[in-house]
Amino acid sequence: MDTALFNLEEILDNYTFKGEYCGYSVLNNGHINNTYMINFATDEGEKSYILQQINTAVFKDPDVLMKNYIGVTDFVRSKVAENGGDPKREAVKVYCTNSGNSYFIDKEGRYWRIINYITDTVSYNFPDNAEICRSAGKAFGKFQQILADYPIDRLYETIPNFHNTVSRYADFEAALSADKIGRASSVEKEIDFVKSRKADCAVLLGLLEKGELPLRVTHNDTKLNNILFDKDSGEGICIIDLDTVMPGLSLYDFGDSLRFAGNTADEDEKDLSKVSFNTDIYRSYTEGYLSTAIDSLNDAEIYYLPFSVKLMTLECGIRFLTDYLNGDVYFRIAHPEHNLDRCRTQFALVEDIEKKYDELMALTEKICSQLRSE
Question: Whole-prediction pTM value?
Answer without folding.
Answer: 0.92
